[in-house]
Amino acid sequence: MGEIVVRPAERSDLPSLADALAAAFGQDPFMRFLVPGDGYHRRLTALFAFESVLIIRGTWVAVDDGEISGAALWSQPGQHSPGFFPSVRHSPKLFRAFGRALPSALRHFRIIEGAHPKTPPHWYLQTIGAARPGRGVGGRLLRDGLARVDAARMPAYLESSAPDNVPIYEHYGFRVTGEIRLPGGPVLIPMWRDPQVTQSR
């Protein structure tokens, strides 16, 4: 296995990184609940394409053996919202992801957004995933992102959709702050990480 390289995403990476994230979240309980089952991988790829194109400046990819095998999407303090028109321009990806289930998905996203802490300013790990588990890609992406967070002396926040991942995030300094219960769906675990004095490498 060659060295895993993490670098900022480019627009030409979008198809590959969306496909890698779709593979990473193939069995994720939250995505299985949210995204219709017919054409699941195709729908999930469209969803991650939508998310990453709106946050391209906060997206980093992991290149493993010459291929994009994972990605991390970070929203940073002071980062401007993409705005109405860019969102509308890329909305066909969102419709491809959810189809008739889009209104329901948006309701659940609003619940998650409503639980998001408003202060203090922080980095938000919106999505992180690796297409091939067990190769250290996810850990490499997380350490790389947290090094940037620590260099900025900022806190960080995420929601874990997989209970098994909670101890992993705790190892990197996150702590559980509660639960986000989705009507008829899974429980998300919000986690907060205070500013760290030393970098997490």
Overview of the molecule:
With 201 residues, the protein is an alpha+beta fold. Helices cover 40% and strands 21% of the residues. It contains 8 helices and 8 strands, in the order βαααββαααβαβαβββ. It has helices spanning 14-24, 29-34, 40-54, 84-89, 91-98, 102-115, 137-151, 166-171, and strands at 5-8, 59-64, 67-75, 123-130, 156-160, 175-176, 180-181, 187-193. Strands 1, 2, 3, 4, 5, 6, 7 and 8 form an 8-stranded mixed sheet that branches. β4 (123-130), α7 and β5 (156-160) form a beta-alpha-beta unit. The model has no long low-confidence stretch (mean pLDDT 89).
Secondary-structure-based class equals: alpha+beta
Q: Could you spell the SSE succession in H and E letters?
A: EHHHEEHHHEHEHEEE
Number of continuous helical runs:
8
Specify the helix fraction band: 40-55%
Mean pLDDT: 89
Strand share of the residues? Answer: 15-25%
Biggest beta-sheet profile: 8 strands, mixed
Give the termini distance in whole angstroms: 20 Å
User: For the CA atoms, what is the radius of gyration?
Assistant: 16 Å
Low-confidence stretches: none
C-alpha geometry:
globular
Q: Could you tell me the number of beta strands?
A: 8
Mind sketching the topology for me?
Elements: E1 5-8, H1 14-24, H2 29-34, H3 40-54, E2 59-64, E3 67-75, H4 84-89, H5 91-98, H6 102-115, E4 123-130, H7 137-151, E5 156-160, H8 166-171, E6 175-176, E7 180-181, E8 187-193
Helix pairs in contact: 1-3, 3-5
